[in-house]
Design brief:
CATH topology of the largest domain: FAD/NAD(P)-binding domain
CATH class of the largest domain: Alpha Beta
Shape: globular
Largest sheet: 10 strands, mixed
Distance between the termini: 32 Å
Helix content: 25-40%
CATH superfamily of the largest domain: FAD/NAD(P)-binding domain
Number of strands: 20
Radius of gyration: 23 Å
Strand content: 15-25%
CATH architecture of the largest domain: 3-Layer(bba) Sandwich
Number of domains: 3
Amino acid sequence: MHDILVIGGGINGTGIARDAAGRGLDVVLCEKDDLAQHTSSSSTKLIHGGLRYLEQYDFSLVRKALIEREILLKAAPHIIWPMRFVLPHHKALRPAWLIRLGLFIYDHLGGRKILPATTTLRRKSTSKLDALKDEFRLAFEYSDCWVEDSRLVVLNAVDAKARGAEILTQTWCTSLTRHTDHWEAVLETSGETHTRQFKAVVNAAGAWVDDILDLDSNQPDVTHLRLVKGSHIIVPRWHEGDHAYFFQNGDGRIMFAIPYERGEFTLIGTTDVPYDADRDKVEITQDEIEYLCDGASEYYKVPVTPADVAATYSGVRPLYDDHAANASKVTRDYVLKLDDGAGAPILSVFGGKITTYRELAEDAMATLAGIFSETAPDWTQTASLPGGDIPDADFSSFLGELLREYAALDPALIERLARAYGTRVRLLLGKAESEAGLGRAFGAGLFEAEVNYLVESEFARSAEDILWRRSKLGLHMSENERRAFADWFAERYGA
């Protein structure tokens, strides 16, 4: 009998599996698709406190997220890094004094130690407003962090496996039967089923959390979730510099314009749209594209049009239904519900932010403490994620060392790989003294050595897993290159 079955391979599921395995528990995680295939790869890719939540007086959520921001920055400095955000003052919207007050609270609420404080920008003394319309003469610049969201999920799964967890992708939980002291779960992989027994179940299935609850015939038919779609557009680089913009919209919402993929693109998002359609196929609408283009064009000198959009992505946020009238007002905090009254326990996870996933996992284990009373204490607060054990979290020094070590390879390739894999990059590169030593080249700097590493070490099972989640190299490839790689992968790995 195993200790815990975690259902769901998004950020919450992999975070809980990692935390539990690190405490010595026997953990199995199953995910019906790929890791991070749904919500967790469709975020705005920020580790942030959520400045806008201050307007909803959700100070506890903001404080919690701000504290986690610096913990995660230390744990994974290769995939998480500081970014400055420029918030131009729009005179017709929020007054300047209110923005200053909010940013003062933001700077001090979470015990900021690493990131620089807010500063005031004026057009005459900075180039950071040059891309904006002349009417925007005043702005405020504050700090948050960028994250490679899909990679954060994968690295949690990699660490969970290293600590003893069993990670099963492309595996459905098709049946749950509750007994007094255990659950009986039927897991299906590639049409083959097997039955396992678990002392507890953690339901971290995201948008499918209610579906998992419905597997237990004794559960009441209750809807706990409010699904909200968030969509993003990707356009060619729309402003110079490595700073992002924080835009206020006339409808009260906000959006970001963020340097993306080594500055070659700009990521603009997000929307907040109630959603009740196919959860497996979430797509942006033309209305959303126009909304994002119009919102950005309110600020940029050069308007953004639908014709400029190079790519899009959409995801569904499975928010806990607190009956807020406006989708933008629904709480982004997580809710944990333990059901142990009718036999073996099941813990369901509702909502949450990628920023607070680590604390959520700790809370989940605290909630299960009565079942697993002899486990090790909290440990993730000071632990690095795979590849994140960079001395002093100094990525620049680490990169400099790698560039000297692999001087014969393209510096741009080394920097990309260092960002993706951190200290584990040497497992991938080995003793390669030229690009020829990395095997077949597929385009956009993707080589056979990296593909093999992703399959062997990071649970990649398809070309899509590699091109769009473990990396974003699909954006940089031509259609012919993507097709050729998919054909090669299918022939090589049978997927």
